[in-house]
Amino acid sequence: MTQSMKTILLFALVAVLIIGTGILQGPNLALVILNMGLVSAIMALGVNLQWGIAGLFNVGVMGFVALGGLAVVLTSTAPVPEAWSAGGLRAWFAILLAICTVAGSAMMYKRTRKGWLVALVLLVGFIVYRWVRDPAVGAIEAVNPASTGFLGGLGLPVVMAWPMGGLLAAGAAWVIGKTALGLRSDYLAIATLGISEIIIAIIKNEDWLSRGVKNVTGLPRPVPYEVDLQNDPGFVESAAGFGLDATLASSLYVKIGYSLMFTAVLLIILVLAQLALNSPWGRMMRAIRDNEVSSRAMGKDVTFRHLQVFILGSAICGIAGAMMTTLDGLFVPTSYQPLRYTFLIWVMVIVGGSGNNFGSILGGFIIWFLWVQVEQIGPAIMIFLTSGLAEGSALKAHLLDSVAHMRLLTMGVILLLVLRFSPRGLLPEK
Amino acid sequence: MDFLNALVALTNFVLIPAMTYGSQLALGALGVTLVYGILRFSNFAHGDTMAFGTMSVIIFTWLFQSMGISLHPLPTALIAIPFGIAVTALLMLGTDRVVYRFYRAQKAKPVIVVMVSLGVMFIYNGLTRFILGADEQRFMDGERFIMRARDFKEMTGLREGLAFKTTQGLTIITAVIVVIALFWFLNKTRTGKSMRAFSDNEDLALLSGINPERVVMVTWLIVAALVTIAGTLYGLDKSYKPFTYFQLLLPIFAAAIVGGLGSPVGAIAGGFVIAFSEVAVTYAWKKVVTYALPEGLAPSSLLQFMATEYKFAVSFMILVIVLLIKPTGIFKGKAV
């Protein structure tokens, strides 16, 4: 069977799975799976660019996804004028000071190579930063803390947040790449793991910026609200024309709207990724991945190329993160868990086939489908398995309770099996 | 000015907690460094192995408590540790047999093995949560304090109290014993020497007739003991929650790298460097400084450099600085 046949068949399988879910478990669940599947596929494309094409090991996907979510808050929520007048400019000025301090000390280290001088600059900069920042932050967070307590965003259309998410993630990736690329691969892994935890810590604790653990709800949407559709006589009439009641029709309409937008983004990124993969640039990247030494000998600037592809991949993850937060309509910093947003994406890339863009998309859909369905089907299986046990026994109750943790186990087993028996994934690189 | 009170406050809030945390990190980092030295990959499943080991200790503790066995005034968990180590060792040897051995035989690239360890991490994580749940568990019993703050005040007449928890004392003493035993083993016994030889130069070690599978097996056994002890001490001292153990991965790796990956002495030094910096940066120094400075110069702010939530940022920054300035770590690890 040729590779393209296999690709078509496997994607047809995904379609059958999703349509089957629609028939058996209702169209709503099918669309939920499809939408998050699209987002997951974009994330997997980003990771594939880094790992599959350039061989960079990034375990900080969660951080970039969260930055995308933050971008939605910063771009699309309405600004809070009272908070801005209370200390908005001062707070941002403090951030600017912090950036200048770090950049200045880095430059100074390059020029003079004197550690104590750099430490002094950092210390003084830090004290000034705190002196500027603390009153501003206190004032901002005191403004109506129950409903705002943060600066708000720019009030722009929410779709603008998607490229913004990419930019934010790219900025963070530049900083990490500058420090950790060029060292051995394990170090990049640990550095990215660390930075993602720090990004989450910042988002959780800088209430003036992101409202922290108070969450931001009611983010603007690029699609109409269900309630408005249900109150629109024209919509109700056309829904009745399809034989649907208004509630179901409105929810399907909204979800399909998201699906179309996400599909468009996925297609754009896929086309760009395919073009990049088959371009001279893509060949160079793979050459670097396969043999760094010989590429260096051919005059390629390996560190710069790594930085480039690391930023691009992270930006794609940031875009996907912004799309996901838009889809949820709320920003919940505590929901970012590394197992879900970093390692699950890795499973998608490995299972799909690293180095193959279609493979990543396929992996994104299949793994996401399993992730949702194991949660749906797991309890049913467990009820069946424990049916022999006495009613009300402690073991039975415990087993039924812990079934939620089965999916971690399942994902781990899938990852190990694929790595062992089919290390090139479902759709291997050509 | 009141140096004595300043010193007591410093000991109470900074030195003792940092010593305790440093010992726990050092034991964890020793495990990472041993795996790196012998098996040559960064084990991302380390944090979850710790959680698993602690979980088995907790279950045995509950078993012993229900049987009425106790070590009063010491926590029952101490009797449970050997059993926990046995269970963890079985799990790790099983994992090695089923998972890692294949990649060793293939001489797979380290980064592939790291990825495999991610899969193992998922499985351990799932196992731990499946058996005991994801919630916080407390399993500390016995006497809580060696020295209570109130008793100290009455004893010395100072204004500041000095509290010394049993778990803190236990952690430090256990860590010292474990480290001495480990170094004795690595430097004096035949097996330990063969492990070091294997870590230094694999080919030469193989030529001298060292059995690699035996070295690897002994390594996993030692690592199982280290993680179970470290995890239990951490759980006794703070509390047990699987996710916290996963998050410990970052400071532990930072400690191992700062000290120099592959160097046991470095792992211990790194553990203490990370712990002391974390505590020092996130502690509000107002109290100590108020005592130490002359009257009237007392600071008005809390003098806290960073909120406690940013403690991961501290280990990360130290890690970055070391990577930039001296990538091999303080004690010349093998990684470049």
UniProtKB/TrEMBL annotation, chain A:
Query: Which InterPro entries does the entry mention?
Result: ABC_transp_permease, LivM-like
Membrane topology according to the record = Multi-pass membrane protein
Q: Which organism is it from?
A: Pelagimonas phthalicica
Highest taxon of the source?
A: Bacteria
List membrane-spanning regions.
Answer: 7-24, 30-49, 56-77, 89-109, 116-132, 152-175, 187-203, 256-277, 309-331, 343-370, 377-397, 403-421
- Any one cellular component term from GO for this entry? plasma membrane
Protein name, entry field: Leucine/isoleucine/valine transporter permease subunit
Q: Which UniProt keywords apply?
A: Cell membrane, Membrane, Transmembrane, Transmembrane helix
Tell me where it resides.
Cell membrane
Phosphoprotein recorded as keyword: no
Give GO MF terms, alphabetically: branched-chain amino acid transmembrane transporter activity
TrEMBL record, chain B:
Q: Enumerate the subcellular locations listed in this protein's record, separating them with semicolons.
A: Cell membrane
Molecular function (GO) terms for this protein are: L-isoleucine transmembrane transporter activity; L-leucine transmembrane transporter activity; L-phenylalanine transmembrane transporter activity; L-valine transmembrane transporter activity
Where the protein is mainly located, per its record?
membrane
Pfam families listed in its UniProt record: BPD_transp_2 (PF02653)
Per the record, membrane topology reads: Multi-pass membrane protein
InterPro entries linked: ABC_transp_permease (IPR001851), BCAA_transport_permease (IPR052157)
Mention one GO biological process in which this protein takes part, according to its record. D-alanine transmembrane transport
Which residue spans traverse the membrane?
20-39, 51-71, 77-99, 111-132, 168-186, 215-236, 248-276, 312-331
- Keyword annotations of the record: Amino-acid transport, Cell inner membrane, Cell membrane, Membrane, Transmembrane, Transmembrane helix, Transport
Per the record, GO CC terms? plasma membrane
Name the family: Belongs to the binding-protein-dependent transport system permease family. LivHM subfamily.
What name appears for this protein in its UniProt entry?
High-affinity branched-chain amino acid transport system permease protein LivH
Taxonomy of the source species: Bacteria, Pseudomonadati, Pseudomonadota, Alphaproteobacteria, Rhodobacterales
Report the gene name: livH_5
